[in-house]
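Worked Example 4.2. Consider the chain below.
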Amino acid sequence: MSTQFLYHLPVEQTQWKVEGQTTTAFTWEYEDGSADLLKLYGKGKKQQWDAAERLDWSLDVDPDNPMGLDDRTIAIYGTDIWNGLDAKGRAHVRRNLQAHTLSQFMHGEQGALIATAKIVQTVPSIQAKFYAATQVMDEARHVEAYARLLHEKVKLAYPITRTLALLLESTITDKRWDMTYLGMQVLIEGLALAAFQRIRDTSSNTLAAGVNAYVMQDEARHVAFGRLALREYYPHLTDAERDEREEFVVEACYHMRDRFNQGEVWENLGLPVKECVEAVEKSEYMKMFRTRLFSRIVPTVKDIGLWGPRVRKAYEDMGVMEFAQVDAQAMLENDGRVAEEFDAKMFVEKALGTTQ
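Applying the procedure from the previous section yields the following structure tokens:
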């Protein structure tokens, strides 16, 4: 079925085309000594996987709760609005919220696909071009996996949110290669890792959890790629250049934090949008979720050297400075181990016939 028939909002309201300038960088130096990038490139080649084979698409999902999430993760849970819904109405809320989340994952992965193709074109180092080429394949596979989950299992999708579209647009249209890295590899991928982790670690559905676990294994490498490249490049910036990038980080982080009010879903469901958005703002779960979203971004921003007063003040205001002490590399390594554990788990459960 065409994706446009799955959308519960007209695509014409949200689709957009991006205009931008790109400078193509050829290099004739094929041995520039970037051993860490070459090591990451080798890892990227070895960890390629087939979304059609690694995941068991024969597994069923509950149409009333596709990802098997606890109702307490729903921002309006326990409110008068939620209490006034019957079982069918609550199932409709679950399905739409989860479809909305997965749809943004799918659209974001397409943005990453396009951004990484641009990195191949614009980055000056041959080793960086090598690794980015493996990431292009990764991102295509991620779009495939989320699209298949939505089309075959959830059978409902939402267009891209305006906030995510604006962030992708600013990342893709900037002609400077490092800004594409910063926007995609550090900010968008960092945010995605935290969002994926919530589903990987809390979903009771093996297929939904597995998709996110395997995508995270790739994304961990992608964030490491951005850290390596920018950590080497940013010490050479002028104060004005560094200030411009820090301003971009701050604005992008506020945008990302504030985009999780799920307004499109409440409107589509015919629920009182104002009251639902207020419930999102008051929800203790959503406050915790919004904070956790920055667990991957803050330590990476600090590591690459964009740690001036403006950035620190913004993170203090958001209540996420605690993540500055997180060992980002250890978290990324753990993502790889969890994916391998999922391989074993799914193999055993499939053999025993116990997978839900």
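The two ends are 25 Å apart (CA to CA). Residues 87-122 form the longest helix (36 residues). Compare this with Example 4.1 before moving on.
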